[in-house]
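Batch manifest, entry 17 of 40.
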Amino acid sequence: MLMFLLYILSDLYSESLGQQPNFQRLFVELRKRVDWESRSLGQLLQLKGAVDLVLCASRSQEKPQLRSEEMALKRTMAEESRVVEGEEELGLSLQKILGE
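Output type: structure tokens
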């Protein structure tokens, strides 16, 4: 909204800007305030995002439900772990048999 107003004012007074120092000074001051507002708004949005993240994390006290893909990956990893353990046991048994 403020940028739209600034655009209209600059369009209305564009001919007077270079001729009258008061207009130029006021427009410089207006630009500084718009820059300050823009920076402040950006900082407030970042703060809001951080607060939202903290609030969301504090509300979820139960474990999140796994999606079907995540559950399948978990099963696959468990099966692979059992296979590796079995291979290690087989290797140890063979070492005992061979007397190594």
